[in-house]
Amino acid sequence: MDLKVHINNIHGSQMAAKITGKFTIDENDFRFTAIAFGRIGGQNIGAKLSQITEKELEKLGYNVDEVIDLLQRNLLQGDLTLPEGLTKESFVDD
């Protein structure tokens, strides 16, 4: 599954931040929100999809849990694009 992630906005700090964005699968765009936590136990991200997005993914034949897992993995690994003017260094610990 080829999933591309684009971040629209990040609010918060290096310890905890709310992320909004979209991801693309097979030329279909979907919105998501996520909460990123750092420090204790390392980085962790919890992504959330709306019920409408989940139903649309199912209708297209995708396993929602697999999509969320891949989305979270891309976010954790930094496999994403950011809006102009925002850098990964502004919200990631070195």
N-to-C series of helices and strands: EEEEHH
Give the rounded overall mean pLDDT. Answer: 87
Task: Tell me about the largest β-sheet.
Answer: 4 strands, antiparallel
Q: How much β-strand is present in the residues?
A: 35-45%
Spatial separation of the terminal alpha carbons: 30 Å
Uncertain ranges: none
Number of beta-strand segments:
4
Strand order of the largest sheet: 1-2-3-4
User: What oligomeric state is this?
Assistant: single chain
Count, helices: 2
Q: State the domain count.
A: 1
SS class: alpha+beta
- What is the C-alpha radius of gyration, as a whole number of Å? 13 Å
Explain the overall architecture:
With 94 residues, the chain is an alpha+beta fold. It has one domain. Helices cover 24% and strands 37% of the residues. The chain contains two helices and four strands. It has a four-stranded antiparallel sheet, with helices on one face. A hairpin with a 3-residue loop joins β1 (3-12) and β2. It is globular.
Keywords:
94 residues; alpha+beta; four-stranded antiparallel sheet; 2 helices; 24% helix
Short account of what is shown:
By secondary structure, the chain is of the alpha+beta class.
Layout of SSEs?
Elements: E1 3-12, E2 16-25, E3 28-37, E4 44-48, H1 51-59, H2 64-77
Antiparallel strand pairs: 1-2, 2-3, 3-4
